[in-house]
Every structure is written in C-alpha cells, then in structure tokens.
Amino acid sequence: MSPFKALSEFCRFLAWPVTIGLLSALLYLQFQNPDPAHQPTSTSTPSASLRPLSNNSSPHSYADAVEKAIPAVVNIYTRTRVRSRSSFSGDPFLDFFFNVPQRQRIQSSLGSGVIVTADGYLLTNHHVVQGAETIVVVLHDGRESIAKVVGSDPEIDLCVLKIDLDQLSPVEFGNVDQARIGDVVLAIGNPYGLGQSVTQGIISASSRDGLQLTTNYIQTDAAINPGNSGGALIDANGKLLGINTSILNKTGASIGIGFAIPADTAMKVVEDVKQHGRVLRGALGIVPKAVPGELANRLGLDHHEGILITALYNNSPAHLAGLMPGDILLELNGHPITGDSAGLDTIARSTPGEEATIVVFRNGKKIHKQITPAVRSN
C-alpha cells in the first residue's frame, strides 16, 4: 500500500472519534455557558454571590467587621516595681525575722484595651494595670503613648485610661440588649504579647454571674487567652458588645469558656469616672430575695420574675416611695427585674439622684411608682 493511501485510511479511522469528541465538547460548552439572551437580567456586582442570601444567614467573611473595629483596640504594656527579700531559708517569716534585706525588681505584664472616645479615653481591665508605675499603649497604626489612670473600678474589674494622641478611632457600640445566644462574636486582643489577634465564636450565654465579680457577663466560646484581658468582644458588624475580662481556667489557655463585661455596663463606668471621678451605683434601700417558686406559681409570675422585698431601710428611697415588705419589684425604668444577680445589677446601674419609674406587684395588681435611687455606700 502506498504511503498516501495508508495516510488516507488512518485519517478515515480517526474521523469518527474526533467528530464525536467535538460534538461532546460543543454540548458541554452549551450547557455550561447558555445563551446570555435567555438568562435573567442581574445587576449584582461580581462579589454579590458572596453575600448572605438573607439577613439571617452568616457572611462568608468577617473581615469588614474586624477592619472596622481593630483600629480601636490597643496593646497595653505595664511596668511595676516589686519588692522582695533575698530569701536564704525559703520561709518568708524567717526572712522577716532575721531582717533579710529587700531588693527591687521590675515586673512587666501585658494586656489589651479599647478606645471608646475620640479624645483619648480607653477601657481596660483593672487587673491589667493594677499597681503599674508605667503604662504604655501601642495603637494599631504603631503609635505609642504613655497612659494615665483616670479612674478604676475593682468591683467589676474595669479601669479608665487617658492618652494624649489625635486622630484616634473610637469603637462603635452595639446594642447588648438585642444580642442573642448563638450570635457570632469576635474577640480582639493581644494574647501572649503576640500582637493583635482575632478569634471567632458565638455568644454561649448571657447574664452569667459569679467568678468573684459583681456584674453579669457575656459568655462566649471565642478563644480568650492571657493578654486578651481588656480587649474587645465585637459582633459581626464590628460593634462593641463587651470588654474581655477573664477565662474560666486562670492558669492556662482558653478552654472555650470566656467572659466579657457588657459594653453598656463598661460605658457607664467611663461616664461616671469622667463626671464624678468614681463609679456611682444606685441603691433603693431594700432587703431583696428571690421570689419562692411556690409563691410565684400562686401569683401567676414567671420563673425568676421579680424580687421580693422582705424589708426596707428607714428613710431609704424605697421607704419614701411608699414601698412595703411583701411587694415584688418587677421593673425599673422599663428594665425587667429578675430574682438573680442580674436584677441587682439593674438596680446598681440606676443613676443616683435621678427619678426613675418602678413597677411593683401588690395584692394581685401591678402598681407604678416614682423612686429616686440613692448612692450605694459600698
């Protein structure tokens, strides 16, 4: 067979598979890229496909929230002068008895803070700066400033600092009352001195009390490690919900249970310190008790609803307002009062000297009264 004839036979042999392949490719392209004229008109941008399908669905990225909030979060470094004895016995009593000389050393620690006003007021934890001789604040843009303590509130572990820098980016506050269990939150801080870091989790619970502090926490499973103290807990929109303050295990890294002081409580500390130099807490002059379950059922009250007034202090705000033992306090300025520490915290956050409206349950009826809280003595 001549070479030309062999080539012709070979081409004829390949023609059918090649034709089938081309037809398959055309069909594939047709289904993958249908005629644009038959497609519905869309005005969305190329990035629109990454947006949530509804207001209730989560975004694919929280970068915008972080970018919005992170300029307000600062790193805090402190230096504290600590005196100790040069122990030779290992027993502090013997060292003192034998008058072993003391020596001084400089102890450094770290934490985080949040810029809350454009004129330089910051929030951090009291324990972050307690006893510090020098407090250095490092901003997200790299600027540094010496900070001074304006006021501190050890009771809820908050401290207000002031720095003298311009062009600051204060955090935007979120609505703590509207935050729900299951909402996504982000913790921003300076863990282990590594620099600003972000961890993500959800609100695990609200109105947590205890932990030797007298306020109600936001509980989260976002990782909060040593150095995160005083940093920001923000929502998915980059707004502040709380100040990170502690982890459950004090000796190690986060185990998925972290706590933050609610932002509204923290901001009241700032306002009080700026106006009065200290934190003012309201008091009504009552001896409260949780409503017993049997009594609540008999009165038709919900579980934990209200505080039972068992006694009144003479000439106290409650006494002057006409309250009586046996009344059940249900509301204060529209905020429900519960029988746990959350109810006491609501009373403490009332403004002393400013008239408030309360609702009490008496003889099967709800009664509205006006009351002027006093300053709590401790």
Mean pLDDT: 79
Question: CATH homologous superfamily of the largest domain, by name?
Answer: Trypsin-like serine proteases
How far apart lie the N and C ends? Answer: 113 Å
Level-2 CATH architecture of the largest domain: Beta Barrel
Low-confidence stretches: 35-57, 210-214
Number of helical runs?
8
Overall 3D form:
globular
Helix-strand pattern: HHEHEEHEEEEEEEEEEHEEHEHEEHEEE
Tally of individual domains: 3
Share of helix among residues? 10-25%
**What is CATH's topology name of the largest domain?**
Thrombin, subunit H
Note down, in words, how this protein is organized:
By secondary structure, the protein is an alpha+beta fold. The protein has three domains: 69-162, Trypsin-like serine proteases (Thrombin, subunit H, Beta Barrel); 176-276, Thrombin, subunit H, CATH 2.40.10; 282-375, Pdz3 Domain. The chain contains eight helices and 21 strands. The protein has helices spanning 3-32, 63-69, 92-97, 126-129, 263-276, 293-299, 317-320, 341-348; strands at 73-85, 102-115, 121-124, 134-138, 144-146, 148-153, 158-162, 184-189, 197-210, 213-220, 232-235, 240-247, 258-262, 282-283, 286-290, 307-312, 328-332, 335-336, 356-362, 365-371, 374-375. The strands form four sheets. Strands 5-4-1-2-3-7-6 form a seven-stranded antiparallel beta sheet. Strand 19 (356-362) and strand 20 (365-371) form a beta hairpin. The protein is globular.
